[in-house]
């Protein structure tokens, strides 16, 4: 089951009309906790459990995720996808330098951007060791789950997670 932004809105509406002070929801890809903070309203926390989807040629990428379309990815490159749909941001805040830029070296844990979904910011890790060669989604643009955010040329022997 996949939780959409509309599903989250519906959950919050139901909670607003109930007497509950907290809801904790665990799905395969996401854990969502929503708490009522007195008169101030609701706060939300999230933790993405799923690793980013990375695709590329069979020698450089080994992933348990279902395969995404490869038509737009040249052989030898790895594509990084967002774990959730939302607005993609290359920097932690407006005016700040980007997390990474074309030509930068990244490893599996490097944060390459964030996705904002329902006012919640989710960091996106590269999931592969290599060099950033291209961004496919511009700063501030909406990115669906299957979108290719950026391409990385994997370092030989660097592997992916």
UniProtKB/TrEMBL annotation:
Q: Where is the Lipoyl-binding domain?
A: 77-153
Task: Identify the keywords attached in UniProt to this record, alphabetized.
Answer: Biotin, Fatty acid biosynthesis, Fatty acid metabolism, Lipid biosynthesis, Lipid metabolism
Q: Which PANTHER family match?
A: OXALOACETATE DECARBOXYLASE ALPHA CHAIN
PROSITE patterns, from UniProt? BIOTINYL_LIPOYL (PS50968)
Domain of life of the source: Bacteria
Protein name in the entry: Biotin carboxyl carrier protein of acetyl-CoA carboxylase
Pathway(s) it belongs to: Lipid metabolism; fatty acid biosynthesis
The top of its lineage is: Bacteria, Bacillati, Actinomycetota, Actinomycetes, Pseudonocardiales
Described function: This protein is a component of the acetyl coenzyme A carboxylase complex; first, biotin carboxylase catalyzes the carboxylation of the carrier protein and then the transcarboxylase transfers the carboxyl group to form malonyl-CoA.
